[in-house]
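stage 2 :: seqdesign
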């Protein structure tokens, strides 16, 4: 009888503890983003998404260049597809076993840059077959809206422009308020990213010398400027915003390599900062290699991007800034949490308390 009571008591305690764990884990969310340059994994503990109260439990990246075949034949390569699926499966297991995130709170997403591939739907089907989870691809317009919702608080929407320089493309947008007092999002996008622009310039070079790349990159700037100007002209109100929030690998690299480290989420910079950085990456890259020997964050940047990628990404950043009128009097910010913006947006969309952007 005593053993039965002890067993029953142990069972009740076990069920109680499991229930408490389940309750504590219901606010845990995880997202895996398949981008042009790699796979990004985020785990969040969300208290109040409306107020922006959440803790980044962990964020990490896996360097899988799934999009490198797009500029060659318009498709994702078979080797890259297999590697990406393997990496996603491994990280899903980590999310489940290490962080105990409920399965219904785990999302997979493919970036608009990867969605440019003609065979991206093949990846959707194979990912579902291998993981049992849906892979949602988003276009540049959707991605821009998610950036707005995930990067900045709603009280800053009306005066802000968001821009993200990705590996495959550049996207963003701004919000206006309609007559019905609803937030209406206006997207902007550019079919150049750090990786795709590098591939375009590489095809024009005759050697692997960085001097050759710099020369061809300079020759391509008029075309890049023309496309960037066309993007802004299609949505002229974008240029009127007083604050511009940047995210993406190119801006992360610029800020990590050239600016003072800070714990602030929104880090201010100027056009002059970007120009100074541009001179170094093109003419004194060895300086960053020396710094990487003692700085792990700088080492991470150089392990993620080649010198050519950094040059291309910064060329895009420069052309964006050149098109913003009176840029020296605008507030320019790098958003350090840009890599989790889409996941925050996903969670916000599931909260009825958050005002929607149309």
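stage 2 :: out
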């Amino acid at each position: 009888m005593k053993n039965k009571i002890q067993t029953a008591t142990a069972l009740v305690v076990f069920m109680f503890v499991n229930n408490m764990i389940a309750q504590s884990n219901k606010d845990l969310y995880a997202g895996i983003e398949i981008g042009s340059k790699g796979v990004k994994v985020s785990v969040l503990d969300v208290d109040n998404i409306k107020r922006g109260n959440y803790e980044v439990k962990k964020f990490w990246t896996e360097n899988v260049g799934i999009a490198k075949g797009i500029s060659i034949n318009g498709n994702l390569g078979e080797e890259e597809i297999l590697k990406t699926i393997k990496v996603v499966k491994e990280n899903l297991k980590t999310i489940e076993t290490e962080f105990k995130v409920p399965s219904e709170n785990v999302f997979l997403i493919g970036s608009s840059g990867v969605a440019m591939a003609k065979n991206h739907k093949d990846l959707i089907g194979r990912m579902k077959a291998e993981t049992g989870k849906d892979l949602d691809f988003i276009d540049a317009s959707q991605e821009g809206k998610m950036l707005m919702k995930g990067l900045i608080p709603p009280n800053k929407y009306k005066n802000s422009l968001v821009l993200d320089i990705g590996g495959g493309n550049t996207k963003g947008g701004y919000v206006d308020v309609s007559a019905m007092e609803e937030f209406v999002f206006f997207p902007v996008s550019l079919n150049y990213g750090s990786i795709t622009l590098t591939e375009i310039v590489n095809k024009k070079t005759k050697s692997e010398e960085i001097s050759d790349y710099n020369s061809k990159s300079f020759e391509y700037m008029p075309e890049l400027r023309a496309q960037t100007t066309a993007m802004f002209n299609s949505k002229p109100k974008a240029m009127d915003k007083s604050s511009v929030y940047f995210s993406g690998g190119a801006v992360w690299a610029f800020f990590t390599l050239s600016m003072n480290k800070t714990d602030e989420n929104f880090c201010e910079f100027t056009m002059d900062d970007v120009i100074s950085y541009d001179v170094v990456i093109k003419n004194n890259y060895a300086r960053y290699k020396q710094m990487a020997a003692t700085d792990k964050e700088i080492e991470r940047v150089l392990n993620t991007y080649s010198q050519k990628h950094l040059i291309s990404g910064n060329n895009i950043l420069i052309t964006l800034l050149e098109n913003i009128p009176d840029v020296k009097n605008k507030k320019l910010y790098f958003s350090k949490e840009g890599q989790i913006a889409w996941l925050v947006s996903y969670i916000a969309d599931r909260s009825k308390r958050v005002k929607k952007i149309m």
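stage 3 :: structure notes
- The chain is about 50% helix and 20% strand.
- The domain at 2-137 is CATH 3.30.420.40 (Nucleotidyltransferase; domain 5).
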